[in-house]
Amino acid sequence: MTQTSQTLRPTLDLDFVRGQFPAFSSAALQGQMFFENAGGSYTCKPVIDRLFRFYHERKVQPYAPYEASRLGGAEMDEARARLAALMGVETDELSFGPSTSANTFVLSNAVRMWLEGKNAAIVVTNQDHEANSGVWRRLADEGIEVREWRIDPQTGHLDPAALAPLLADGKVKLVCFPHCSNIVAEINPVAEICAMARAAGAFTCVDGVSYAPHGFPDMAELGADVYLFSAYKTYGPHQGIMVLRRGIGAELPNQAHFFNGDVLYKRFTPAGPDHAQVAACAGMADYVDALYAHHFGAAAASPVQRNTAVHGLMRDHEIALTAPLLDYLAARNDLRLIGPRQAARRAPTLAVALDRPALPVATALAGHGIMAGGGDFYGVRPLGALGVDLEKGVLRLSFVHYTTKAEVDHLIGALDHVLKA
Q: Which residues form a coiled coil (predicted)?
């Protein structure tokens, strides 16, 4: 394996990576370059294989004594246990739900019940996707004070120094913020923010939907009490995944059937699980393990260590590909690039405000084999705070570790052609 001089990590083997995704060998997608990964990633083969097997061999009510049912339940348990281990949490601290929006909605109702009648406050940001903003803001209708932690209107930066005065009086019980925004894409200092909140007596709820595709979190390192992300953006099926640590999980009121109230991973999932999709989520752990084994060999490593190593591989590759695209966009005077100009400070999700509506530009790019989108991407609040015309929206170009340099080069060429038109 070749080594990068700066990190001493192996260079990501893109042939191996792309071989794990059937989309890249699909005739229907040949000549198409996927730059809307922030809306959902391609699904890796281990997930597809597990989903196929479940529907063909295990599609019965799980956890009964007969073999098909026993195996189905065992696969669901495996998914929870292996993903929890990758992130360094206890198995019952990981819950599955129909989506991150649904998980946040249920969680907000638990917080409403918890804080009802108390002289308490929560903090939200205007950098978030609406899923981690709107449900919390509605708690103001129940008499819970909602304080807004605001971004810089020029850069979109969320300054931890601006959080301190919001926490000063000790009334705040929950701070909700993104690991990174799906518009601004700056990687927020999660560990620092969580430490600030903890020191002020508050829990934290981190929206990781826009960051987790670039590496699953190490929860001990971040220190968040709740971390939410979407499996369909981390190469898996359409499930919402919620890491909910025991301290806050025991504090909040049960939202499930009363007889499930003592089971942490069931307390905040009132709907029955999608058996097949939950089981298929183990394929995401298969994928991380396959990347680790291919790049680092058979040396013993804990699940967290494997996850950390793979996370580093992904980020090294993404940073290298993001830099020239940032340089190209920053050099143009007919658009506004939102978020940091330094590739290492951001996820490879680039939103640009143009001198024209974004959707027709995305449509024109499709004629060049570029799959991208234009609109507000449920980031109405950050776009409004940044002064972006919501009627025009933004062109969003997003990729992950399976993207190639040739694809980025092609994107730059296509942008050059379309933006001159």
A: none
